[in-house]
Each structure stands twice: as structure tokens, then as C-alpha cells.
Design a protein that fits this description.
68% of the residues lie in helices and 0% in strands. By secondary structure, the protein is mainly α. It folds into two domains: 57 residues, Orthogonal Bundle (Arc Repressor Mutant, subunit A), CATH 1.10.10; 119 residues, Tetracycline Repressor, domain 2 (Orthogonal Bundle), CATH 1.10.357.
């Protein structure tokens, strides 16, 4: 399912070869230079088009940023989705397969750099913060669905709690990939570590706190 920001920052644009070329260049600029140095002029130079050509599709830096983030997320998730379709039907095996896919993303340098820059930008840019919130509502809801299928007896609240823990665990491990002080030597070791932690949580070692169920908007 294609991800789309449904919150206020979402900007529709005409998807064409030229607009996608610009968004692809914007993604490269954002990964390489970060949010502070991101500009429409820099994207135009990277795409080898005029500034006016960029502004024809994206009227402001924030519009370009919003569409680039949505485009980049769909690039990452598009690759994941094609692998999801090959996973087993069994709920628990499917969840463990999803963990393998997410850990593979953690070991991708472009993916790590994109999200480090995205999180940093969201700390001081309101539009980026809104986009981050929309993205993680989508991500947590999807993970909760996999967790609920793996353990149908747990409540929706508990499934969402575990989804938050799983997302935090996996993305926090980005800090330990590619460092000189190697805490996790291989992708397989990291994947096994996360799987063991998730299976322990599913076994009932984590007791959910009762509270009214609220659906994330």
C-alpha cells in the first residue's frame, strides 16, 4: 500500500518523469547534505534542471520537502512490500520475516542517513515534525497488525504497545551499525537479537497496563 501523508503538510503533485526526477535528486541531496542545507536551488543543481522547473512542480521548499519525504518513504517501503508478498502466511513466521526485512533496512547506509537527517530536521522544523508523526502512525499501525496476527489472543492496545517497542528497538539499533566499536557484528546477529526479544514479549513477559483504547488519527 502506497504511503501518503494524510496530515496537513501533504501536498499533491503531478507525478511525471520530470517531477520524479526532481524528487529523486531531492532525496539524494537530503541524504548527502541533511535538512539544514536542503534547498530548492541545490535540488535543481542536482537534478540538472532550472530553479524554475523545480518551482513549477513545488512552489516552496516545504512543499518540495514534504513530497520528497513521501517519495523517499515509498521508495524504501516499495522494496519492502515486494518482499512482504513472499513471506509465509503463518502469523508468527510472517512477523519474524518482517523483522528480517526491517533489519536489512537498518544495514542500508542510505536508509540510515535518510532517517538520521529526517529525525534531526523534525527537532526544529514544524512541518517535518508533522510529517514524522504521520509516518510513525502509519508504521506503528502496520507493525501492530503483524503482531496481532502473530499472537491473536492479545488486545489491540497491547499489540500497539509492542509495535512501539519493536519500532524503537529496531531504529535505535541504527546507532550500532557501521561503528568502529562493533556491538553487533552482523546483520543476522542483530536480527536474531530482535526476534528473541519480540518472542519474549509475545510470551507474556510484558504485562500491558489497562487503559481506554484509542485509535491513532
Amino acid at each position: 500500500m502506497k504511503f501518503q501523508f494524510l496530515a496537513k503538510p501533504h501536498v499533491d503533485f503531478d507525478e511525471s518523469l520530470n517531477s520524479v526526477k526532481i524528487l529523486s535528486a531531492a532525496r539524494r541531496v537530503f541524504i548527502r547534505d541533511g535538512g539544514a542545507a536542503f534547498s530548492t536551488r541545490g535540488v535543481a543543481k542536482e537534478a540538472n534542471v532550472s530553479l524554475g522547473a523545480v518551482q513549477h512542480f513545488f512552489r516552496s521548499k516545504n512543499e518540495l520537502l514534504s513530497c520528497m519525504l513521501e517519495y523517499a518513504v515509498n521508495q524504501f517501503e516499495g522494496g519492502d512490500q515486494s518482499v512482504f508478498e513472499t513471506l509465509p502466511v503463518n502469523g508468527r513466521a510472517r512477523l519474524l520475516g518482517v523483522i528480517d526485512i526491517l533489519i536489512e533496512d537498518v544495514w542500508d547506509s542510505d536508509c540510515r542517513q535518510f532517517f538520521f537527517n529526517f529525525w534531526a530536521l523534525a527537532c526544529h522544523n514544524e512541518a517535518a515534525a508533522d510529517l514524522k508523526d504521520a509516518l510513525y502512525r502509519h508504521h506503528i499501525n502496520r507493525l501492530a497488525g503483524f503482531i496481532g496476527a502473530a499472537e491473536p489472543t492479545i488486545t489491540e492496545i497491547h499489540a500497539r504497545d509492542l509495535a512501539v517497542q519493536l519500532a524503537a528497538m529496531i531504529e535505535g539499533l541504527m546507532l550500532f551499525v557501521g561503528t568502529r566499536d562493533v556491538h553487533v557484528a552482523t546483520r543476522e546477529q542483530m536480527s536474531d537479537m530482535v526476534k528473541n526479544s519480540v518472542l519474549a514479549l509475545l510470551s507474556g513477559s510484558s504485562i500491558p497496563v489497562d487503559r481506554p483504547f484509542e485509535v491513532a488519527q
